[in-house]
């Protein structure tokens, strides 16, 4: 069964460093998303992306964050200068279409620890 | 601020019983509703979705939606220890590529 894959599974970084989280969405999907979940808290939306553009972003997704689809398969989330509060599990998701009824499928996540 | 509310639990049910998980949402414009299961340290896994008022059944799972009451529920019949997990209710707005808003989840424990 097709799945969303994320690398790395764990990332440890020093505060102020840049990190790039990588995702390979399901191959025929067109809409891509990043969510995050701080330990013990709810899953929070960060950004949605379609046709090489951001469709929607949350208040969390400030200037320190960026997304890119550098080639036909990868979808990346970059955090330019990490803060302690960026420590969380980051989930990539994709969907075939962007309609309201469309199902989102999540990757296994990258656990980011900022020291 | 759109809210999705769930009782955090834990909800403890004996093996073989019916587990009933509830969720309320604040935005009347919400159109589609999803239940995800999340094991500790793992990603959300979609188990049910519902768009229309009423019941929708899939195997041991039944989702129920009442838009007038802004209420969605998930019933798990013949609960198994492997069903022990956190169940996340998620609500999606209208619009293209619209985001899912998640509740905090209800932790379900199925006891032997």
Can you characterise this structure?
The complex is a heterodimer of chains A (115) and B (112). Chain A contains no helices and eleven strands. With 115 residues, chain A is an all-beta fold. The model of chain A has no long low-confidence stretch (mean pLDDT 93). Chain B has 112 residues and is mostly beta strands. Chain B is built from no helices and eleven strands. In chain B, the strands form two sheets. In chain B, strands 2, 4, 5, 9, 10 and 11 form a six-stranded mixed β-sheet that branches. In chain B, strands 1-3-8-7-6 form a five-stranded antiparallel β-sheet, with no helix packed on it. The chains are: A mainly beta (115), B mainly beta (112). The interface between A and B is medium-sized, with 26 and 27 residues.
Task: Offer a few descriptive terms.
heterodimer; A: about 120 residues; mainly beta; seven-stranded mixed beta sheet; 11 strands; globular; B: about 110 residues; five-stranded antiparallel beta sheet
What separation lies between the terminal Cα atoms of chain A?
A: 36 Å
Q: What percent of the residues of chain A sit in helical stretches (DSSP H or I)?
A: under 10%
Low-confidence stretches of chain A: none
Structural class of chain A: mainly beta
How is the biggest beta sheet of chain B arranged?
Answer: 6 strands, mixed
Question: Would you report the number of β strands of chain A?
Answer: 11
- Count of strand segments of chain B: 11
Determine the most extensive contact between two protein chains.
A-B, 26 and 27 residues
User: What average pLDDT do the residues of chain B reach?
Assistant: 93
- The level of helicity of chain B is under 10%
Main beta sheet of chain A: strand number and arrangement? 7 strands, mixed
Averaging pLDDT over every residue of chain A, what do you get? Answer: 93
**Quick one: overall form of chain B?**
globular
For this structure, the quaternary state is heterodimer
């Amino acid at each position: 069964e097709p799945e969303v894959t994320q690398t790395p599974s764990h990332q440890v970084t020093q505060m102020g460093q840049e990190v790039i989280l990588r995702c390979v969405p399901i191959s025929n999907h067109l809409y891509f998303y990043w969510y995050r979940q701080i330990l013990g808290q709810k899953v929070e939306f960060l950004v949605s992306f379609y046709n090489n553009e951001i469709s929607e972003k949350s208040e969390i997704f400030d200037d320190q964050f960026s997304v890119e689809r550098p080639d036909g398969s990868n979808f990346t989330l970059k955090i330019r200068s990490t803060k302690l509060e960026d420590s969380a599990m980051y989930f990539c998701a994709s969907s075939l279409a962007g309609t309201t009824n469309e199902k989102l499928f999540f990757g296994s996540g990258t656990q980011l620890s900022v020291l | 601020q759109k809210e999705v509310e769930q009782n955090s639990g834990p909800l403890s049910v004996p093996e073989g019983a019916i587990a009933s998980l509830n969720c309320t949402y604040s935005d009347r414009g919400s159109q589609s509703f999803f239940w995800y299961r999340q094991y500790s340290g793992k990603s959300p896994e979609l188990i049910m979705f519902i768009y229309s008022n009423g019941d929708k059944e899939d195997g041991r799972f039944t989702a129920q939606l009442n838009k007038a009451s802004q209420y969605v529920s998930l019933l798990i019949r013949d609960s198994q220890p492997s069903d022990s997990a956190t169940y996340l209710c998620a609500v999606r707005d209208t619009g293209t590529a619209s985001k899912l808003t998640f509740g905090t989840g209800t932790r379900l424990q199925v006891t032997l």
